[in-house]
Amino acid sequence: MAEILVLVDHAEGVVRKPALELLTLARRIGEPSAVVLGAGAAAADIAAKAGEYGAAKVYVADGAEFTDQLVVPKVDALAQIAKTVAPAAVLVTSSGEGKEVAARVALRIGSGIITDAVDLEAGDGGPVATQSVFAASFQVKSKVTKGAPVITVKPNAVAPEAAPAAGAVENVSVEFTGNAAKVTSRTPRVSTGRPELTEAAIVVSGGRGVGAAEGFGVVEELADALGAAVGASRAAVDAGWYPHS
């Protein structure tokens, strides 16, 4: 089967749910190979989790660059791996950072890119992506006509399904190109105990109608009762009523 590279999104040594969704989708179009970058001592556990969800191979690369710099080190690693293994597709989570990584990788390897896919299927000439457009009024099917497609997939596009595979680890040495924005400090976000907004099955959102920052107390109470995440409109965020995150 054709090899499908999946960039595994992780945080604090734990694989994030959208990465498991990518591995699930990748099995529809080929044989998943996970790419784990900058995981440090947690790489073995993350590789094992990727294998549990269908990764036959796990390419692991580490280095201070992944934590000290933004975006470019991940692009360096993913592009180099893609050039070496010649995959049938490269899958990335459709987040802000994920889209930037995907766009840069597509440029580096000379391929087309599809963003915000909600489904994948095998097709003649390569994978076919389904996109939900115009506020979900229409669904369109797209495929790349040159090179291995780089596809970003929206979180919650599919329910993760385990399918144990070998998960054989292959350590990769990366040649970093430099010229990346450097991280000068970090401020940890205070956890609310609620699900991540991008991964939540239910979101309770507030906007102008709550009247003021204090009005979000009702939104939070309902979210907690439902086990949901809290969302906010752009107007509410711009007014300083609720954090952008």
Give me the strand/helix succession: EEEHEHEHHEHEEEEEEHEH
Beta-strand proportion: 25-35%
Question: Given the C-alpha coordinates, what overall shape results?
Answer: globular
Helical run tally: 7
Structural class: alpha/beta
Low-pLDDT sequence parts = none
| Spatial sequence of strands, sheet with the most strands | 9-8-7-10-6-1-4-5-11
Instruction: Predict the CATH topology of the largest domain.
Output: Rossmann fold
Q: Based on DSSP secondary structure assignment, what is the total number of beta strands?
A: 13
In terms of quaternary structure, what is this?
single chain
Radius of gyration, CA atoms, in whole angstroms: 19 Å
Tell me the count of domains: 2
CATH superfamily of the largest domain: HUPs
Task: Report the top-level CATH class of the largest domain.
Answer: Alpha Beta
Distance between the termini: 40 Å
What's the CATH architecture name of the largest domain? 3-Layer(aba) Sandwich
**Largest sheet: number of strands, sense, barrel closure:** 9 strands, mixed
Helix content: 25-40%
Mean pLDDT: 95
